[in-house]
Amino acid sequence: MVSAFTNLGVPLSAEKTEGPSTSLEFLGITLDSISLQASLPIEKIHHTSLLIANFLLAHRCTKRQLFSLLATSTPNLHDHITLTEASKMELKLWHHFLSTWNGISFFYDDHITKPEDIQLFIDAAPSAGFGGFYAGKWFAAAWPREFPSLPNSSTIHEIYPVIIAAILWGHEWSKKTIAIYSDNSAAVDIINKGRSHSLDIMQFIRRLTLVSAQHQFIIRASYIPGHKNAIADSLSRFSLQKFKLLAPDSDPLPTPTPPYSATIFN
């Protein structure tokens, strides 16, 4: 490649030229083609974590200071902004993640894993409960007692079992992009963007973001009008006899669901 650039008259920086090698540094990130990993030095993780900790103590800062978290040097950002509780919750999320992350991230698979490929089915019945099925394992539960204090939103009901499934089984989805189907367009949009204007929904989305980062998977939601899946539908409505007929090889007992406090990040 070096000779090709030389023949084309393209100048190369000697101090920035490496290889051939199976491991090289690019923009401060070490890329390894053997282990298929990208990694950050521990000192960079500690530096970023310290920056976030400083912002958590501040009430106001300039846009330029905030952009320093992205190592950005954008001019004309001298206006002061208020660090709201919502923005600090985002900072707390990443501060928490960095405190346990080893700096290593796997390269993700190129293809999207569809629900039928791994037998992952999730459903919510706002009037009854929620359920999920994954490769023989399953859960079925009534809505937590904390739900009545939340807005009566079908979007929250639709997102909640997705978070439960991610907490229970996300450790088996490393390096994968997992597709899920929903007939709730708002839930699809929120899951894919990773954010919502609703503070009530954001406490759930932050937990989903954290679990996805910890186990290194991506969830991509697709809108399918009137989408139904019989297995998860029977679980969300506690039709266990029907469920056993549809999934006779499933585990005899359900997987316990995490408490409500473990499904939010606030």
UniProtKB/TrEMBL annotation:
An MF annotation (GO) of this entry: nucleic acid binding
Secretion signal: which residues? none
Q: Which InterPro entries match?
A: DNA/RNA_pol_sf, Hepadnavirus_pol/RT, RNaseH_sf
What CDD domains does UniProt report for this protein, alphabetically?
RNase_HI_RT_DIRS1
**Gene3D superfamilies to which the protein is assigned, alphabetical:** Ribonuclease H-like superfamily/Ribonuclease H
Q: Name one GO biological process term.
A: DNA metabolic process
Write the protein's name. RNase H type-1 domain-containing protein
